[in-house]
Specification:
The protein is α+β, with helices and mostly antiparallel strands and about 375 residues long. Helices cover about 25% and strands about 25% of the residues. The protein has a seven-stranded antiparallel sheet, with helices on one face. The chain has a five-stranded antiparallel sheet with strand order 12-16-15-14-13, sandwiched between helices. Strands 7-8-9 form a three-stranded antiparallel sheet, with no helix packed on it. A hairpin with a 5-residue loop joins strand 15 and strand 16. Helix 3 crosses helix 8. The radius of gyration is 23 Å and the shape is globular. It binds FE2/S2 (inorganic) cluster and fe (ii) ion (FE2).
Length: about 375
Amino acid sequence: MALLDRTTASLPAAWYYDPEQYARELEAIWYRDWICVGRTEDWPEPGDYSVVSIGDESLVLTRDRDGSMHAFHNTCRHRGSALCVSPRGRFPNGRIVCPYHAWTYALDGRLLATPRMDLPADFRREDYSLYAAHLDAWGGFVFVNLSESPESTLAEFLGDEAEHVRHWPLAELVSVHRDVMPLACNWKVFWENYSECYHCPGIHPELCRVMPLYKEGLLSHADSSQTVPHGDATDPRARVAPGFVTWTLDGQTKLPLIEGPSDADRALGVVFASFTASFFIVAHPDYVRTVRIAPRGAEHVELTVDWLLPPGVAERHPGELEKMYALGRLVVAQDGRACELNQRGLRSRQHRAGVLMPQEESLHEFHEWLRARLGST
Ligand code: FES
Ligand SMILES: [Fe+2]
């Protein structure tokens, strides 16, 4: 990675709070990309549903009788009522019934019945199925794409990043705990914070004890302009401190190691897979943590953090779970505070744009990606 060698501006400050810019980004990115909305185990039985939001769009996800899943816009084809009153539940008898005039749909979205109504002679039920969205799954994660014709398959979207965690049996893991965290910041503020470690020495002292390279403000040896004596020339990724195993406050674990990761994976203690800008996976030898990012307006974002383990491990090791959550929770809370402070300062009438430092090359790449995406709509 070429380090920034000249003064480089950050994005225009208004892009972090202007509602019109936010609307442009929803169209260019959030309504076009594959967005992770949960785990397959969130819909265990046929008829189970939950309502999820992508930007301003409300969707209903449900599981069909044959086990397949569907995503629909949360809108009735009659006169547009929202279909679901509760954020989650189970459709009785496998029927989706609109709460307004009781138009009734199958779990695959087909219109089945229009009660107490004389139908016009030319009315064709098959023309009034629910508005479907594209849905696919990988590694037990459910993704939705709101584009009418997605530009990529889910596999193409996940690309090489998914390869980083290919040794973890992600589809077999189960989410044993979920934290949902609203933050008062633009989604880009959070993604930028995730993309650099310049802030690590000041904001994350506990994490820096586990990850010595982070003390230098670097996420990877590739980000250093100097020869790094403890770096591995063939693998520039940061690794846990000598004698440390995983991301806990003391770097130790009593959880069984997950079967699948190679010795090289385990030696690192942490492997990332990042899917700009909605989802990232942090895989450790003993557990996996994932973070989903959902914009909730120009100046708000909602994080959903899951901790994944092989089936049965949480039940056999209940006393170890708090230790597993502690460091990730602390880091997310520290990042959340920094992001909210960042958002507050961006609104100064004096501040037109920030400036990037060499360690923030990844932000520049993110900004170039964003500009390209905006230009292509
Ligand atoms: S709006 Fe749904 S049945 Fe009328
Ligand atoms: Fe951080």
